[in-house]
């Protein structure tokens, strides 16, 4: 189809010619075909500009055809043709992509951004939105087809490298996809036909030196020609893209046939992955510090070296005869590491790899990642070493050594039989240490790490930090603090030394040295599993791989895990003096168990030995004499045999929480355990963490499961056996418990601790000590764990152990841990102890132990008392020193629970029925609770019970006796103190005294005891005067003993008070009737009666109606009132007495009148005793005038009488009548006449 060059102005013409409608799909497609035929690359700028403007319009028309039949026509026309505009030409569908990170023209182009709006059209027509792995592979194949055997140019090389790296990073699963990669000759070859050089030191002796340096093909030992992949493609990328490993191909054919050389003596050799970025990443993982030296010790251990020496050499060596001018910067101070093993070909291979886990198939190798050695780049950029007949130098930056490249950044030099030291004396004289002469094969390995000076640090691509000799000394100091423990778990290395050399002429000076020696008993070597442990400790046959060892292990181990304990002595020489450290180790192997563990069998490459070892520090001793530099530990042990047997008392500062995790060397992981734990852990690549976690998957989960299996099923048993050995080694003491983990730590150690306790419990490990039966170590299932909720737990353990019960002597944290992990064990409880003692009676060492046991047995006592759990318990302590049993009430004799006065009341009479008074108050209260339950043979003392016991407490003949003579403390009679206790008890506990009325218990004077009788003649002693006491006794009353004060609420019913009322009641009790009272005082003296009257006639007795009529009547019948004239003592009732009237002359008063001592008495007699005072008229009429004959001879009295009568009549004339009738006038006849008669 032609295109008209011009515009049509006629619409009719345009319509008839079909120009007015847009062109159809077939037309557009045809035009695109024409454009793309000869315009793969458009070089004409004008045409390119026109196409850039026209193509969007064309694509816009095609956009309108999407989802129409026209689009199918377009697809059919354009299929397989070049029609896609890419900005500078046209491309086919398989040469373009909508989006992509790489622009790989002419093999693959990306749609320009200005055409992105036509995305839907391009997708509809089959353009890829993104390139898949297969698309990148196709690009390489097209490139290979186009180039044939021609080498790639620089741009193509860059493109192929980018594609290869992209393919390696993308998910890639289809192994049928063909991939082409460049070889070292810059030709594209199928990846499966290439090899990558992962064994650069293995070069066939049949190949000339020049061929290795200039050709891409290497002839193997069998003559096979191999094509090497381009050096800019890393081994990791090559491995992922199907390139074969030269190591795997050639080692199987002729691993020992390689002979590397450079100019006849040296050749390119080294870590072909020596990328500085990779090393930087490794240094980030491996922190600077003593861990670097540990890595070197690890390498020596894996090489079966027995000795490791570190040396800081400050010598500045010559710089003239060096391999290259750049090497002069590395002739200064250096750190050396010597060991007495020689690198094998496998070791050389391993050290040239980075992170290839080359030691995994060695059953006892410590390292597994191939990364550890590279941590030496912390202080050097140029590590070198001599071993056997080889000198090896690494230069990761490929900027110091001659003849190396970034793909092979190092040299291996065979010096035996060569004149290498003569040719380069300055370069190689730094290696002339530790017996190395660089002429004969060196029977060891000597690493030299020249320190990074300021000059080389500034241009280093690995690390910019200077490492000075002072930094190495600091490193030595940190390492020295840990080095004694470093040897613990190493099987081969026995000695580690640290030296310093100040200069070229100075000698090496020893800074620190540690040596290890086993001091176990000889019989420990004869265990049935000695063969397996011998394999573990370096006695294995050469060539045994891990599968063979595990197979042998599984056949050698039965259901129980084999274990072995031994003592290790580490002797340490240092600036602070010489010390000897004694350690105890316990190791355990798992055999059949490992096969059932998914973590161990899921991946052959990750299978580790199921072995673990625990180490615990026993003690350290300062040595009196220093070891010589050449001395060895065997000599020391032979001359100092007593070191392992140092007594426990010399142990100082044992750290029971500083345990670390080891993977043969210490890891920066503090476990919180009191021991070190060593096992074949799965570690992170920097050896700083062990794999553990519940959120892992894939390989991480398998590693975590393996570590958990080791800890729970191997470490825990080893730990348990260690505890058993420690128990026998140091005996039962507080120190022993410091070996136990009792605090809750972090996982995974917490789960290991739990398994440890379960293992100890399940396998009968004898780690608990009991003093029972003379003292012995027992298993947990045999033991009874103490109860520390009891405040005397330790004393109880002693008591029960002495009684034969296997109670463990263990601290509370240990018991709590067993209770948490193994709750089914026997933990002491009151119920358990009661059951054991009821089942079998035990003998206790003393009474206090038995009482304490009883106290614990009652610890859980609650109300109401569960009686059945106590019946038969033989722990009731009696006062007489014997012991009885808790029984049902009525089965045996009653036992009384009393204390204080109650105890003293019964102790002398019934000690065999009395609970011992030495029990505590708390125990007494609990026994009282038991007694009050009324289910037991125990009873509290009550008044009723006491009354029944009196026949055993008092003489039997006293019962029903009204009065007895009391001789306190003699002939079985109660003492004064006992009687006081009795009355004290009665006062506090017995409300009703009447129940004791059968017994004479009332103490009175003259050493008598009376029965309790109501309204008795017994009076309290209130400090009576001698006269009063004498009078009362003469009257028949009794007085309570003055030295025996009694108190009781009912005592007033039986004893009269020391008041007037009490005295009167007592007198009535004696007389029986008031009328007979007068006769009671026949023997009383006048003074006594006067004192009685003074006591009774006190106004205080007559207030408040204290005295009733009976008492008044009694008073009147007491002959204690003095008659006026004769002064005789008479009662007031016989005859009736009168009070003296006022103003009457005393001479005229007779004995009918009572003489008063005070006006107060006068008032009492008149007011309360009803004794009247006669009127004067009555007085004179009845007592004077009628008795005038008595006064006639008394002139004075007569005159007074007559004077008084005169005055009475003057006062009251009416009395004349009364007087006039009285015969008081004496007549001449001598008769007495009435005045009225005159």
Description:
- InterPro entries: HATPase_C_sf, SACS/Nov_dom, Sacsin_chaperone_reg.
- This protein is α+β, with helices and mostly antiparallel strands and 1238 residues long.
- The protein has 8 domains: 11-131, no CATH class; 134-259, no CATH class; 276-486, Heat Shock Protein 90 (2-Layer Sandwich), CATH 3.30.565; 546-638 and 654-731, no CATH class; 749-838, no CATH class; 839-941, no CATH class; 1013-1174, no CATH class; 1176-1238, no CATH class.
- Helices cover 34% and strands 14% of the residues.
- The longest helix is centred in the middle third of the chain and has 33 residues, at 698-730.
- The protein is elongated, with a radius of gyration of 63 Å.
- The chain starts with 10 loop residues before the first helix and ends in a 5-residue tail after the last strand.
